[in-house]
Amino acid sequence: MASVLAGKMGLNSLLRKQSRNFNVRICTMESDMEFSCEVKWKGKDLFDLVCRTLGLRETWFFGLRYNIKDTVAWLKMDKKVLDQEVPKEEPITFNFLAKFYPENAEEELVQDITQHLFFLQVKKKILEEEVHCPPEASVLLASYAVHAKYGDYDSSVHKPGFLAQEELLPKRVINLYQMTAEMWEERITACYAEHRGRTRDEAEMEYLKIAQDLDMYGVNYFLIRNKKGTDLLLGVDALGLHIYEPDNRLTPKCSFPWNEIRNISYSDKEFTIKPLDKKTNVFKFNSSRLRVNKLILQLCIGNHDLFMRRRWVDSLEVQQMKAQAREERARKQVERQRLQREKQLREEAERARDELERRLIQLQDEAHMANEALLRSEQTADLLAEKAQIAEEEAKLLAQKAAEAETEMQRIKVTAIRSQEERRLMEQKMLEAEILALKMAEESERRAKEAEQLKQDLQEAKESERRAKNKLLEITSRTVHTVSEQSVLPPDLSLSRENLSFDFKDTDMKRLSMEIEKEKVEYMEKSKHLQEQLNELKTEIESLKLKERETPLDIIHNQNTETVCM
């Protein structure tokens, strides 16, 4: 220990001699930053610089963590950076992470940047299996993570395979079921499509609301031993201290809520928890190193302070932040409504345009059909006129033949007197001629009637032609009128900015506040719907589950779920 301190002091002295500044690298969940710091800077000076750079005001949740040997430590705010056991390399690397977790993310997280940093950190812990997550919840969380990245689902954009390169599920969940990557993507996309209308911030908050109900959410675990030398795990979170079996991090053996703890202290490696109820036994345990005891005490003090702070009236700074957040959410809500109305009006205008185009095409088709009908009518009229002319000529020809037959009959009558035989023959011929003349007369009459009928058909054809021409003129006039209507949009479809402006009034803010309170009341109903959705997802994929690949935490989680259901 003395050699380590001497080495650290030698390093600090060397830094001070060589330069008045030192460099640090800050690793956040999204990117890395580098700063040049003065030797005299304390931990708070560096921490405030990082928070200002990120635009973060809810600083009490976060800290700067660094690695030291085989454990981690958090940078102390009241000590100089170089006087602490920070890494010796240049630049010094710190991880900007959430040190304390909220009890209720929706009520406590005010800034969007705070919410986003928590979302990234919790998602990373779930994917790396530092936080156990059941399969059905993993699918639902993945769908909200996809919505936070891609926005509303659009089948024309988000086609099968668009999630192929995304890491969305813990490997434990993927290995637990006989399902291909395409099957997982299909189920995640089905849930993703139901989140339409949410913003990125709303999707991230829904993710945190589901994640905060997981058993290992926000818990820091430490290996300890009780007085009997039995190995145990100590869990520190926003609600209190919990004691676990080493192979079961889901269900604590016993818990000490913060409001039931009177005092926490340690001496060397021994840690003591004194309950508020003096009749309850004092709980003592040992940790492996003094450094771990210091870390446990830091987390206990910070979580206890936040636990009590949540139950007091908010400070003026927090009240101002929440008021600004409410105003910002109200402004975003109004802006979202305005954009929604503009989108709706644009869609209505496009639908009206499409309807006009469809109507124009329909009228053009009708005009084309009317032209074809007129052409057919003209052709039919010409054909009927030609047939009528032919029938008339045939009737004239038959009449001429009948007259010739009558003349022949008179001549036969004159010559019939020559002899009896000739008379008999002539009478027979005359009879045949009369029959033939009668037939010709009947045929002539029939042809005359047929000619008359053809004349009537010709008249009807001409009448049909006249009606077809009138209909064509009517359709043409209607087409011109439709096109003129299309060229001028109706006044109610014009997108005037003046109609979309809004003024914030006190009554509007009160109304929005009441709506926010109403949403809190509806939270329980949404939670019930969320649980039903989780159960439905679990039922759908249960048949594909591989029992032999279940981890001990999966078995414990299933037992806990069955116990709750009973």
Automatic annotation (TrEMBL):
Residues 22-311 form the FERM domain. Its main location: membrane. It is found in: Cell membrane; Cell projection; Cytoplasm; Nucleus. GO terms for molecular function: actin binding. One of its GO terms (cellular component) is cytoplasm. It is a peripheral membrane protein. PANTHER family: MERLIN/MOESIN/EZRIN/RADIXIN. This is Merlin. It comes from Takifugu rubripes.
